[in-house]
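Order emerges. One example.
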Amino acid sequence: MGISTHVLDAVRGRPAAGLGVRLERRSSGGWEEVARRVTDADGRVADLCAEASAGDHRLTLDTEAYLGPQAFYPEVVVVFRITAGAASCHVPVLLSAYSYTTYRGS
């Protein structure tokens, strides 16, 4: 089971290319980093994690580096749960200066 994301910039009307993304997994000791990537020209990170296991995960987007110091949300943090038997997990994010939306993608 893999984890991927796709970030779209609603302000500029294009993919959020060059956005820093961090993936972590919850363990008994807290959050452990799994991967760090940067979105490609299409705003995607297809290989965030090729072999994700069931459990709680946290996706953090470095929106301040992308939007600048005026960013209302300096980070966007999405915590999600993968259940046993899931084939893959895609987490799309629609980003703007003062809001963001996410959902379970396909």
